[in-house]
Amino acid sequence: MPTYKLPDLEYDYGALEPFISGRIMELHHDKHHGAYVKGANETLEKLAEARSQGNFDSIAALEKKLAFNVSGHVLHSLFWKNMEPKADDRPTGDLADAIEKDFGSFETFRKQMTAAAGSIMGSGWAALVWEPMGSRLITSQIYDHQGNVTQAGTPLLVLDAWEHAFYLQYQNRKTEFFDAIWNVWDWKDVAARFEAARKTDAVLIGATD
Ligand SMILES: [Fe+2]
Question: What is the pTM of this model?
């Protein structure tokens, strides 16, 4: 029984047009995300095999494969939920206040997040992360799916900067894609993640008294 499952999209492939084409969404979800789910389950099987044979010669490669594929699955699952067809143009409430406190303004946060996405060398993601040790929001530039991750940080909003996320529609004009995607962020989803992540502070830091 596979542990990981490809989640269904909560909207049609073409629902985010004209900002993201239906064909990109179909390929991105079904083929690319699907491949990470398959890769994660296959790696779990190989690890079970290694345990039953008592042979851990390939453990380093398998750990890398597991981190890559599970993280790819996690980030894509989050990415689909971070977007919606009829999006508000910016967050409100506590999330808006926290963004203003930690980045200066929504506009400077948007610039920082877009710059993080646009300057990734190779494949990766930009992320808005809740960092519990400092009780603050930060941005992260994630290499592939798993490198450069801030330990204990919870990703709230992720921007896929892999070429497969935009090339069919935007070709080499990736900054146009990073600009367009701000039309489809689901700020209610991001705010709900922010509220949930903040509650984990005490547990993670151990400051429960
Ligand atoms: Fe992707």
Answer: 0.94
